[in-house]
Amino acid sequence: xxxxxxxxxLLLAAxxxxxxxxxxxxxxxxxxxIKNKSLxxxxxxxxxxxxxxxxxxNHAWLGKKIEDALGxxxxxxxxxxxxxxxxxxxxxxxxxKALPLLDPNDYFLVINGDVFCPNFPIELLIAQLDKxxxxxxxxxxxxxxxxxxVQHPNGDFYLKASQVFDHPRDGAEKLTFSGxxxxxxxxxxxxxxxAPAQLxxxxxxxxxxxxxxxxxxxxxxHDVGTPQRLxxxxxxxx
Length: 238
Description:
The protein is of the alpha/beta class. The protein is 26% helix and 26% strand.
């Protein structure tokens, strides 16, 4: 793979995991395990296999346990650094705080730490970069969208071809944002460092400017949001 394409990755792991209580009272949600492997370990192994080397993990709730479990990433042949938050800064705020550690040339990869997507083709997603960079008005975000799960039947955004819309369009499909995406550093340039900020309003703002592209992924993907879902995934993988 082109060295230019070996972008950094941010794994989002700062959430409190309220819906996962009591499991998350003593353990950060992304350290919960499926098939005896933490959610973060699944991601890290996949990133390493895809050739990505630089990973930043943000954390807030019980963050030291994440650092103790994963260390500097050498066990995954990765270089892991951490972006601690005294209290969770929401997704966009967390990304803004981690940007100096990521130090991307332009684009970087972000993955929600609490999604389970074994066999997700990270290499194919990264391969989109050359196309994005060549566009006349390069997208500020490229979102991986998935069919709407039972717990989120109304979806998030509309996808037609490779364009993401916030409102219905002829031939567009309403899908759910997977929590996996490529972002350009310029998307976050106006955010205040260390201030909470949500990602969805930021995305909607640039969607209106036709600066968000996307793709549909139909492989295994799960938002591990409740103890029941975690139990079901473990039972299915026995």
